[in-house]
Amino acid sequence: MSDVDSDIENLIPLVTHNVPDNHLDISNMVTEKYQYKIIKNTSQLIKSDVWSTFGFPSKLQNGKHHAISGFVSCSNCYKTLSYDGSTKYMKKHKCLDLNVSISIEKNTCLLIIDKYMGKKVIIQKHDKEKLQEKIVLWSCLSIRPFTIVEDPGFTEVVKEAITLGQKYYGDINVENLITTAKTIGNNVHPIAEDYRRALKPILISQADAGCLCIIPDLWSDKVNLYILLSGGIGYRISNAFIGTVLKAYSYHYPLELSVEDIWVVITQGVGIHLNENAEKYRQFFVSHEGKKVLVVAVDDLVISIDERVSKGNLTIPAIYWPKAVRRMGDLIKANIKVDLATVITQPFSQTTTVQQAVFDACLMDTVKNYFDYRFSILCGIPQVTLVARSTSFACTKTQRERSRKSGHYLMVENSL
Prior knowledge:
Strands 1, 2, 3, 4, 5 and 6 form a six-stranded mixed β-sheet that branches. The protein has a three-stranded antiparallel β-sheet with strand order 7-8-9, with no helix packed on it. The protein has a two-stranded parallel sheet with strand order 10-11. Helices cover 47% and strands 11% of the residues. The radius of gyration is 46 Å and the shape is elongated. It folds into five domains: 13-112, no CATH class; 125-178, Arc Repressor Mutant, subunit A, CATH 1.10.10; 219-251, no CATH class; 259-376, no CATH class; 386-416, no CATH class. Strand 3 and strand 4 form a beta hairpin. It is an alpha+beta fold. The protein contains 15 helices and eleven strands. The chain has helices at residues 27-31, 94-118, 125-141, 152-167, 174-177, 181-208, 240-251, 259-276, 278-285, 305-310, 321-333, 340-345, 353-366, 390-405, 409-415, and strands at 13-14, 36-39, 54-61, 64-68, 71-74, 80-82, 219-221, 226-228, 234-236, 292-297, 371-376.
């Protein structure tokens, strides 16, 4: 029984008077692969699946492959069979049996998987409400944000827990499954290193290809101005001004700048350049070698205990430092050749005390390779309290008089 109507096959028959009737020597198809090829049967009347494996052998003539009529060839092993319109012998071919068995096994496997995995599990309403209650109690009792349930990490933990529940049957001891906080902390660094090692070749290849994109506004540590970038890349903003601008940009905050802010950035830039080339410019600023020690006495700038107590804060500095650094600035001015001190520390019309102190600190930083700064203060007892009654002091006076009369006058006088 034929699967193909030979009248409509899109093949150009080749005269085969030199070809044997019962078989075709296929060795030439292997050794002369550019002369021979297997052409797929493109007929619209194909009914048998054998044509997914078999095709018609063809030979290259005049720049075009022409089918050799009366034969079919296996596209896997190139074995050639005679063909008279029936697929009976083609169905017995070993390659066809292998393909069919693989197909059956694959389809059977898919049916089994679909049977158990294809259907979506419908969770009952009361089970969802029970889980919801557990999350509410956890959030309230442990003071956790409600948005924690929307965190991708929380979702991944729940998924992994469900997977473990499907893998292990019986009563699972949750205490043995969940590790302690100390264990989690100890594993942060090793896991981070594993991810960095895995990510490193990817980033290198992207950088080499010129397609690496870094976005610095994903997340910011508000305390340390530490910007975390995609893929674990990070950098620390050591300059407060740049960190402020970047934070305003990242969070779309309005930015307010004063002339003092701009001037601090300029003086810091000057200081960085001078510190990197201190010996190159030494002759322009100072006459001494090494570092000269500058000492400022600040005894008169001590903040009294009463003043600190009155302000309700005993942690404030015991020295009025704005005036202290101002004095150090004057001392620097007296020990350098050029009037760099006035240039850096000159206040503007609305400069505050704190801003002036920042100017003076910038001056100290600019010439720190030429000077050592020291602030001296004499130690002292701010207050003495005598714990005794007035009668006790009167008795002390009486005993002193008795000592004088008893011959111990000189000893008592010397002790007092």
